[in-house]
Structure formats: C-alpha cells, structure tokens
ATPase domain protein, prokaryote domain protein (Candidatus Omnitrophus magneticus), 519 residues
Amino acid sequence: MKSKRYFNTTGFCMPERHYMIDPLRNQKIIFDLIEKTQYFTIHAPRQTGKTTLLHELAHRLNKEGNYISVVFSVESAGYRSITEEIANKKIINSLYSSSGQYLNKKNCPIPPEKYTKDLTLENYLIDWAISQTKPIVLLLDEIDSLYDDVLVSVLRQLRNGFQIRPKRFPSTVALVGLRDVREYKTKVRPSEVSLGSGSPFNIKAESILLGTFTKEEITELYSQHTKDTGQIFLKEVVDRIYELTGGQPWLVNAIAREIVVKILNEDFTKKITLDHVESAKENIIQRRDTHLDSLIDKLKEERVKNIVSAIINGDGVLFDNYDDSLLYCRDLGIISETKPIRIANEIYREIIPRVLNRNLQDSIEEEGETKWYIKSNGKLEMDKLLKAFQEFYSENSEVWLERFDYKEAGPHLLLMAFLQRVINGGGRINREMAVGTGRTDLLIEFNGDKFVLELKLKRMPSARQKGLDQISRYLDTLGMTKGYLILFEIKPSSIIPWETRVKWEDISHQNKNITIVEM
C-alpha cells in the first residue's frame, strides 16, 4: 500500500513521501554549467531546499546515464582544531560512504583503506576519475563549515584538479552551503593564508542563490494535498500564507502541516480558514521550532545586530562593512532580497522583536483578571493603553534600555513588548520596518478596529514635523484618518527631565487626526 504523503519540515524531501515541487524546476543554468564542465556554487539559507535539490540532481544525472554524480557533506571536517591530514581523511571517508547511495559498486571510488598512494582529496579524485568512463559531477555540501587551513587546502586541491578535468578529475564540482564563495575568505586568517588570487575559488563560473517559493508554487504544492485528500487551500488562505512566510519553503510547509495535522487533526472534511492560518502562525512562533531557533541564534552576531537594529528603528546605516553585513543577512534569509531593506517575512518580523524583548514581556504581568485596556463592548482602548505605556516608560525605561543587547532599538522594543498583550488577547500587530525610512509603523488590528502607530526617535529637531508628514502619508495609503505618532527622546533624563518630556497632544494635520505621544 502506498504511504500517504505529508508536508515535510525535517530533512530533505522525497517525492514518494512528501508534498514537494520539482527543486530543479528553475535550474536550467545548473544543467548548462554541467554540460560546459564548469565549477559553481549554490547557496541558500537553512531549510530552503538545498539538500533536496542536490539529491534530486544527483539521482537525475545518474538515471539519465551521461554522468555519475554523488552528493556528500564535508561537515565532519568542520571544526577549528582539525589538521589538514585528518580533514582529508574525514572528507574522503564521507565521499566514499555517500557514493554507495547513488552509484553501483563499479562506479564508486576505491575504499579509502585500500588506497595505497598519499591519501589526499586531490589524489583520490584523480584516481577515481581515471577509473571511470563517464564524467563525474561532484556536489560538496556544507562547504562553509570548513575553517582556515582546511578550507584553503580543499579549495586549492579542487582548483588544481580543475586544470586536468574531465578525464582525470571531476568534470563539474558544485560547492554548496549557506554562504556564497565570496564569503569564504572571511573564514581564513587574512594575513597568513592566501590562495594567491582575489577569490579563494577563482575558477567558479556562477554563484546560484536558491530563491523562495512564489505564490503560484505554493498553490501548486498545496494542490497536491488537495488531490490526495480533497481538502482545499482556498486562494485567500494561500495569499495569507504567502504574506506570512514570504515563500520561505520551511515556513510554507510548517504552516500547512500545523493546520492539517495539529489543528484539524487530519480530518480532511474540515474547511481550512484564515483563522486556522493565524493560529498556526502563533503556534509555530510560540513553539520556536528548530528553524526559528537557528534564526534567533544569528541575532547575537554583530553583523546581524547592526542590520536588524537599523531595520527596527528605520535608521540609515553608517557603520563600516555595511555591504558585507547586508549580504550576510541576505544569505541567511533574515532580510529581503529587494529594497527597501526589511525583515524577510511577516513571521520573522513577528518573532524577532518578541525574542529581543522576551525578558521584558515576561516581567509585564496583568493586574488581576480584568483587562483594563478593553472596553465593556470588547473594543480596545488605545489611548488608555498608550498613556499606561508613557507612565511605564518614564518609570522603567532607563533600567530596561541598559539591559537590552539591542540598545539602539530599545525604545521601539519596549513599546512592542508592552503591546504584546494585544496579540495575547487575540489581536494582531503588523510591523512595517525598513532601513532608511526614519520610522517604524505598527498597524494594530483588534476586534474589528484598526490603529496606526508610528514610532520615531527624536534624533533631530525636525523629527516631530517629519513624523507628522510621514504618518499622514501612511494613513493615506491605508485610507484612514486617525493615527498615533510616538516620539522617543534619546537624550537622558538628566538633560531633559521626565516632567517636561512626557507629553500628549491631539492635533489636526493634513486633514488627519493625529495624537502625538512624547516621552
């Protein structure tokens, strides 16, 4: 009996077990490069389908019969203290053990223990290529797990063999990892180790970044579930999932799996609704599955911190190595590939502030059972909530801002933590944050009402006027006439005391009703 397929969130996908779309669907370039005996790199964030693509590519090449192909990981050699000699042995062992998954015995390389020459990767690959009648396509996964001399040694050996391909060395080598090859030079000691060229792998022809799913591809993926079960993902549901995930493959699968398996308990007669999508999103964020945990770990890195802080504040970026930090965050999938520079998708925009202000959220406790910010008709009292935040901020901000790892973004994160109770009460916060905008926009939805908050740091005397113009334009795009401009003073209270900086003012600006909340 054929096993039922499902949405996969662990390991690579297999068509007989999992719902999946062809990972090679947009990759004519890969087959062109192989035909031209080129070396190239493939890079993408974790859990975006790299390993699935590699397995599919190797199996397809072997099945078509013009090449022999193997995928293997070099991660076993990926620690700093390892010597080049031991690393070579580990990498060769990994290659040999993996080859049996893809090739028959006559096409596999010789067992390493029977190899009589100097056991280097270069020698091993030369003898393997000579023994074969077909060109070899070698796919090295986790290449960016290697460090220092070992990384340089592997790249040098591959470059040496490039000159004698395809008869006496693999015809094509693809290096696969999280980062593009341009980043590898930052993982070696720059003054002591060099490959003698501008690029550590200057023979590569192309660098291929695996993209996210389009809305049409998500529809195609989900339609496989519909074909198997009859359960439909309506267009409005797919549209919302695309908004939440930005097409990030793991998130696309995780949301679907959460709805089908956890929420609806695989009852395929039940209709999938937008409420199920929101519940799935919240469950995944609160549970912090492995994918989200690996994203969160990156927030501690200085390069990531610089970019994420700038996005949360809407600041321009003036620090050194800006371009490199930006590319690093893009390669990790944290930020979008297109301008303006913002967090890659709505789920990441939701979880990143929550993680950064988690300790504060945990310390803000509700006073008794009554939700004092909810009216008797169940509507949100935004004025009351923001006035309570003003009081909280004046009493607690200096202590909390000192504790924040992301100090620059501290005021914004404090307000987001305070507003978290809105989400906990069944509401929704949409965050618009991007580098260079000079602000952060929050659209809060609660029980049928919408509230627009614009957050701005008072870096310049013009901040108030610019903020009023900006929120007016933002309200125009939403077709709304009421909003809140939140201005944070960045000078310490020793210079501007709290009794003069805490203000509340209702004004009319460009035919909009704006409440200015200063603190």
About this structure: The two ends are 66 Å apart (CA to CA). Residues 389 and 418 are 7 Å apart (CA to CA). Confidence is low (pLDDT under 50) at residues 188-200. The first strand starts at residue 39 and ends at 43.
